[in-house]
């Protein structure tokens, strides 16, 4: 099996659906099914139970393989990061796309500081919605991107390097008078009948929400989508509406009319610095290391 095959299994595991995973991986359903069967044949063990056509089940062996698969991907990416400084630096212009979280995560300031320290480099940071950033990265319009791991899962590890910058936790935000506000932790099952406002597909927040519901065979009641966190929070006071957002991205917008609660099974996401594998060089890894050091001091 290849690194890309392992990444494909991780996508199937997360989405619990061959067809949906195939769409995300830009593969045909038959091609992805063949990859999964090839892995099972090589391991001589069943990883996926496809008896239920509506919801794929993961076998105990599949659960074990998943955790090893994650480690293999992390080790591969660490190796590529360590090899990158050996490539010659031919970059004079670096345009980085980012989801709209530069302010909340304090991303823009260290990037500007790095640019000041490297006057030979023309450095530019552009904020846009996650799906647009990803499209521009794939089209070669951006030399790098700062997006969530939920947006980078479909990228082949052999084509794109994904370096974690920081982690954040998905939280439930609800009106202070909501019936669930008295609970310290909330189950996904508790939210099935709630009116859910959310960021749209491609945001990197919508995707884990759908995955969390899907893993339990549930379907959320999404009644409103907006690209603006402030708009979502504005819908909550004096209603039964709720929303799910990452803690650090929503904290600056919290008011005394809403509260934040944890999920019973915490969902942790990584903010990743992503760039084409063959473009990795000492300058790129120095920028990543500089960003990580600054963000860890925050």
Write structural notes for this entry.
The chain is of the alpha/beta class and 298 residues long. It is 41% helix and 23% strand. It is built from 12 helices and 12 strands. Helix 1 (3-15) crosses helix 3 (29-43). The longest helix is centred in the N-terminal third of the chain and has 24 residues, at 60-83. It starts with a helix and ends with a helix.
The radius of gyration computed from the alpha-carbon positions, rounded to a whole number of angstroms, is: 20 Å
In what range is the share of β-strand residues?
15-25%
Helices and strands: which structural class?
alpha/beta
Backbone shape? flat
Main sheet: strands, sense, barrel: 10 strands, mixed
Strand and helix layout:
Elements: H1 3-15, H2 18-25, H3 29-43, E1 48-49, E2 57-58, H4 60-83, E3 93-98, H5 102-105, H6 108-117, E4 122-127, H7 130-138, E5 144-148, H8 149-152, E6 160-175, E7 185-186, E8 195-198, H9 206-215, E9 221-225, H10 229-234, E10 242-246, H11 247-250, E11 258-263, E12 268-276, H12 282-297
Helix pairs in contact: 1-2, 1-3, 1-4, 2-3
List keywords for this structure.
alpha/beta; 12 helices; flat; ten-stranded mixed beta sheet; two-stranded antiparallel sheet; single chain; 41% helix; 298 residues
């Amino acid at each position: 099996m290849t690194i890309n095959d392992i990444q494909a299994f991780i996508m199937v595991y997360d989405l619990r659906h061959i067809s949906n995973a195939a769409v995300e991986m830009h593969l045909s359903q038959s091609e992805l099914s063949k990859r999964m069967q090839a892995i099972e044949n090589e391991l001589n063990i069943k990883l996926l139970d496809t008896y239920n056509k509506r919801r794929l089940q993961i076998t105990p062996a599949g659960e074990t393989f998943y955790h090893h698969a994650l480690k293999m991907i992390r080790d591969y990416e660490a190796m590529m990061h360590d090899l990158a400084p050996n490539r010659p630096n031919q970059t004079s212009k670096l345009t980085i796309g980012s989801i709209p979280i530069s302010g909340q995560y304090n991303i823009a300031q260290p990037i500007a500081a790095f640019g000041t320290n490297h006057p030979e480099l023309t450095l530019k940071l552009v904020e846009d919605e996650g799906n647009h950033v990803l499209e521009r990265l794939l089209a070669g319009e951006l030399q790098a991107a700062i997006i969530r791991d939920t947006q980078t899962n479909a990228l082949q590890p052999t084509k794109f390097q994904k370096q974690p910058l920081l982690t954040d936790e998905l939280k439930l935000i609800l009106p202070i008078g909501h019936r669930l506000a008295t609970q310290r932790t909330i189950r996904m099952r508790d939210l099935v009948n709630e009116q859910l406002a959310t960021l749209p597909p491609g945001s990197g927040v919508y995707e884990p929400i759908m995955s969390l519901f899907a893993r339990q065979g549930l379907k959320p009641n999404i009644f409103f989508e907006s690209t603006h966190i402030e708009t979502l929070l504005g819908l909550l006071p004096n209603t039964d509406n709720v929303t799910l957002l990452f803690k650090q991205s929503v904290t600056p917008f919290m008011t005394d009319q809403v509260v934040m609660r944890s999920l019973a099974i915490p969902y942790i996401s990584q903010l990743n610095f992503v760039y084409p594998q063959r473009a990795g060089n000492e300058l790129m890894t120095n920028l990543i290391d500089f960003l990580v050091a600054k963000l860890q001091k925050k």
